[in-house]
Amino acid sequence: MRYYDELSEKLSQWIKEQILEAGCKGAVVGLSGGIDSAVTAVLCKQAFPDSTLGLIMPCYSSPEDSEDAELVADKFGIEVETVDLNQTFDILYAELEDDDRAEDNMAVANIKPRLRMTVLYYYAANLNRLVVGTDNRSELEVGYFTKHGDGGVDIAPLGNLVKTEVRQLAKYLEIPERIITKPPTAGLWSDQTDEAELGITYEELDRYILTGEAEPEVKERIENLVAQNEHKLGYPPTPEF
Predict the structure, then answer these.
(1) Helix, strand, coil percent content, the chain, rounded in steps of 5
(2) What is the per-residue pLDDT across 127-163, written as a single tens digit (0 to 9) for each?
(3) Residue 33 marked in a binding site
(4) Annotation-wise, does 221 bind a ligand?
């Protein structure tokens, strides 16, 4: 586990350097109850023991997600605030023209991470801190995040680690086992899981990212995801004239 010991130290130091270079005093991170946010929050706590804030932001989410977020915060002594976004979501949605409130309507579902992004930046601005993102390399490679939602962050310390590497780092950090083993989800709707939405497993995706090897149908699916989400993967296009 020496590799992950060194990796943990390097990532915590990188977070500290990035935040201090920006003239800020600490970190704000969304605690979703998932493995990526747990690892990110613990690394931030190592970097800024007295100025790391975890935000729990339920928005028609599973109660278990908030419980798991609290579990991580309690175990590692992370300061937390809970901002319930249910009513905020309802008020905003009531003002929109589309009355088809299908739970799995992506336009509707993406309101949730964008509301959370707004809350994260509110706290970060008030506290003179940076918003630390939780996206990993697997998600970033194929654009599996909500534009201006969970993709709206200042730094992404897990951005060079595929999901399987994040799991190994989580084990080293002693993240609670139930968080490590539960199916990854963005919490966009009931019973939503990342792998069902991606159409492939993280193991398949990670293998392709790290080795370039995959079954033909897996490779095709990954290439389609990249093409579909290309607009998320860089700065907005601007004219050359």
Answers:
(1) 55, 5, 40
(2) 999 999 999 999 999 999 999 999 999 999 999 999 9
(3) yes
(4) no
| Domains, the chain, with CATH or none | 1-232 (3.40.50.620)
| Residues comprising the chain, all counted | 241
Segment 192-206, tens digit of pLDDT: 688 888 899 999 999
Q: Is 30 annotated as a binding residue?
A: yes
Sign of CA dihedral 65, 66, 71, 72: positive
Q: Strands, E, within 18-84: which ranges?
A: 27-30, 52-56, 79-82
**Residue 36 annotated as part of some ligand binding site:** yes
Alpha-carbon dihedral 49, 52, 57, 61, rounded to 10 degrees: -40
The annotation status of 148 as a binding-site residue, yes or no, is no
34 is known to lie in a ligand binding site: yes
